[in-house]
Queue: 3 jobs
Job 1
Amino acid sequence: MDLTRTALVVIDVQRAFEDAAYWGKRNNPDCEANVGRLIDGFRARSLPIVLVRHDSVEPKSPLRPGQRGNDFKDVVRGPADLVISKTVNSAFLGTPDLAAWLKSRSLTGLALCGITTNHCCETTARMGGNLGFRVLFVLDATHTFDRAALDGTMITADELARTTAANLNGEFAQIVTTDQLVG
């Protein structure tokens, strides 16, 4: 797959998401390993890497700046070409401006990975597609958590990830795997 004008965008791979008591049951235990493979693969090809950090403004959030949970997980290692701070779901609404940065470098695509599949990753994919970027959504390098439905039933993390993939594929993004991008 041609990635020459593509940046890897690593979304919210932060320590706070390790707290199962806070977030609930997660899916995809291979997420972080796949994120690491993507980082290594992009770095080996000298392709740009963007790290996105959620800096929550909610007083009780484990993602608040100054909390250990705000730190990147160990898999997010080494230098990045850009680090974005955001307080909402989309990396395109963070600081500095992701779209402007991509355009200033003639980058036309982004490969998205991170946490959570159906929130910040999906929102960023939708906005990226709407802004005209080629979005590769690396589903096996994301994870999410079980979530209560309005009727009180539980929607599993796997079901949420599968639904996100169905919602995005072909309209906002192309769903891909880590192996397809970096072997």
Job 2
Amino acid sequence: MDSGRDVGRDVGKGGDRSMSGRLGAVILAGGTAARMDGVDKAGVELHGRTLLEIAIEALADADEIVVVSPHHVATARPVTYAREDPPLGGPVAGILAGVDALSVEPHLVAVLAVDMARVTAHTVRRLVEAADGHDGAFLTDADGRRQLAGVLWMDQLDRVRSTAGDPHGMALHRLLAPLDLTELSTQGDEASDVDSWADLHRLEHGPDQQPSP
């Protein structure tokens, strides 16, 4: 019997969505970090922990985690590494490469960008709850912009990927457009990400502190 995490009640919409469903996770860490001198973001430290460790902690409820990245960073929890083919294919190619690398197909998959350092396990649990009765749920910031933090039912992801075409360079909204997604407003600074060294400094020291020239 599958002993995976509880990820939601049976909503009677395509596939098995029982309380015994498995939760898988994909961490997207394969970007170019152009505004950070091409550094491997996964290994960047915030308060003494790498961004990858922070992301893994946020996905504590996942049965299995795949990190989509060309680089390997030491982690306390074992993870699987995967890459898009060809590399640098964007978020859609990364998500699908990550899902394909899961050893057991989950009922629900969480997707998280490695630089969203204020997403926590509580955030992910709220997303799982919000996805109940929908095809998935994603965080949206104060301006209503969808963030790279969400959950998708695998049966629905499989449905849309089968007709989406080449994922390389595909915009995420194009893949997700056919899905019934609910939007979850961020709490506090959950939408904060690390796109630059200044962003990292603000998360490290607070918004009122300016980095040294």
Job 3
Amino acid sequence: MLLPCTALLLAATGASAAPAEIPKIGGVWQFGRCIEGPRNCMILAEDDARLTARAKAYRDAIDEAAQPKYDCAPMSIPHMWTDPYSHQIDVFDDHIVFTYGKDDVVRTAWLPNANHPKPAVNEFSYFGTSFAHMEGSTLVVETTHFSFDPQGLNADFRLASSTQKKVVEKYSMAGDDLVLEVTTTDPFFLKEPWVYKIQSARDPEELALPWACDVDASREILKLTPSPYPQDPVVVRLPE
């Protein structure tokens, strides 16, 4: 059963400021469709003009078998939004929880009244640290302090992201639909911000969880993938 999704967010200017109401974003949402631009607006292609020379060099240096997805590692944001699965949003008094329909991923965004501590300068994690605030009628979630991720921009094209990656998600409502605008910056791998906007309808079905990734099935395709480095020892992955 979905939790109640009405909450008040104290304005960042102080407790005496008038509270702003979070848009009614709680619930389960279907896979989003692009509002502007091409149908594949969420995909950062392997030859995208926004990629730096460093990004392309890393793409060409690392082979497919080294990608973490074959060990059941999930895709990080923003690339996670490109997978055609539903997701759930639960709004609480001091935080917001995002649950994805793939890879058993759960993210938390802290609201100002949570007084959640900022991460230390050397504190990084796979999904980073997220803080949320209101800008008018839009909920803004800013995420930083990502660890280096060899598939952080695109798991299919070996596009990495650095510890300098920043993802800003803006959530608003268009009628009964959820509108999400995502802006990603990374000075190591992107020449300019990568921005896309998608719209999602409510999903009448609950998420089919847990995902429970099967490591053996995830690695099956590697049996058909030749190594570009045949002179190196054969990679033997650790058993589960």
